[in-house]
Design brief:
The protein is of the alpha/beta class. It has eleven helices and twelve strands. The radius of gyration is 21 Å and the shape is globular.
Length: 342
């Protein structure tokens, strides 16, 4: 894998996004799914990316393993992975062989919808073995069985029984825990979680997230969560990146972001979420429709829906500024000191 002197190793952060832009280039139109994103994801953290559908969360996350669906391409910038062994890897510069070794060994992913990720005609053990051997062809049967048992134990499943079963014999929650075990099988440093509890009941969701948080804390594996669920983020995440129209509107510590809600879009998302302590009549939808990524935007991309916009918002794109330590916002309402202005 690529390791050159031009990259400076960062012991505190595991992913470094440097002015990253991702385009879907088609015959008659080009769609910019992510625009000029610069961000560092802290090592051993639980970081959540939230936003409406089409905000660019999944596109951004799959760029971490260079698995963009055609015609998606990284048109600008780079994704750097700072491995715990001191190696700095430019992910989008890896060749096919290097990518194969990188995926699952360094970064793995739990995809949305466990049912479609499991082969219905193979036992769970056969699928574990197939994955393991593809990456470690010299592995012996005892090693594979031991590792399969270990990861299933981590997600609180009875390994001897589960390994003999087929996917249709498992409940939805069990399938999703099997997929988490799959993500753990090669001891990655980071796991991407794409809506990992979709279509599961609330109790099962809570149980799975408690397992994920425990893995994050006890094994020191960095978690990146893609979700619409603000409540889950508030309960389990350490950091939050609020996305809209392919851009990061606000990023910071979860407690600070929920307390201050500097960006109007962040405030809108939180206000639109049901609360156990606030009356329902205080809920407010975000007015307007999500932005079209095909149309060229002049000014702030959120301006057409923003209740706090002023003239500058419609003619000039805002820059990302620091409002507190490790807390950033992309909005004209704030200057470099975080003070509001007109």
């Amino acid at each position: 894998m690529e390791q050159t002197n031009k990259y400076i190793y960062d012991k505190d952060n595991i992913i470094e996004l440097d002015n990253l832009s991702i385009d879907y280039v088609m015959k008659h139109v080009s769609l910019r799914a992510n625009k000029n994103i610069s961000l560092k994801i802290k090592r051993n953290s639980f970081t959540a990316f939230v936003g409406e559908s089409g905000s660019g969360k999944t596109t951004l996350a799959v760029s971490f393993i260079d698995c963009l669906v055609e015609p998606g391409v990284i048109s600008e910038g780079q994704v750097l992975f700072h491995s715990k062994n001191g190696e700095v890897i430019n992910i989008n510069k890896l060749n096919d062989h290097e990518k194969r070794n990188f995926r699952w060994n360094k970064i793995s992913m739990v995809f949305q919808g466990a049912q479609s990720s499991l082969n219905p005609v193979m036992t769970i053990y056969s699928q574990f073995k197939e994955t393991y051997v593809q990456h470690r062809p010299k592995a012996k049967e005892e090693e594979i069985k031991a590792k399969s048992t270990e990861v299933l134990k981590i997600v609180n499943l009875d390994a001897p029984r589960i390994l003999k079963m087929y996917p249709h014999e498992l409940s939805g929650g069990m399938k999703q825990r099997v997929m988490i075990a799959f993500a753990l099988i090669l001891d990655p440093e980071l796991i991407i979680l794409d809506e990992p509890t979709t279509a599961l009941d609330v109790i099962t969701q809570e149980y799975i997230f408690s397992i994920l948080k425990n893995i994050n804390k006890t094994l020191g594996i960095t978690m990146v969560l893609l979700t619409h669920d603000i409540a889950i983020v508030a309960r389990y995440a350490d950091y939050i990146a609020v996305m809209y129209g392919g851009e990061i509107m606000e990023y910071g510590n979860v407690d600070e972001v929920f307390e201050y809600k500097y960006h109007p879009y962040t405030e809108g998302l939180i206000r639109a979420t049901p609360s156990l302590i606030l009356p329902l009549d205080e809920m407010r939808p975000i007015e307007g429709n999500p932005v079209s990524l095909v149309d060229k935007c002049i000014g702030c991309i959120f301006a057409p829906r923003c209740p706090k916009k002023f003239n500058r918002c419609e003619i000039e794109e805002p820059v990302t500024v620091t409002v507190k330590t490790d807390h950033y916002v992309k909005c004209h309402l704030y200057n470099m000191e975080g003070n509001t202005h007109e």
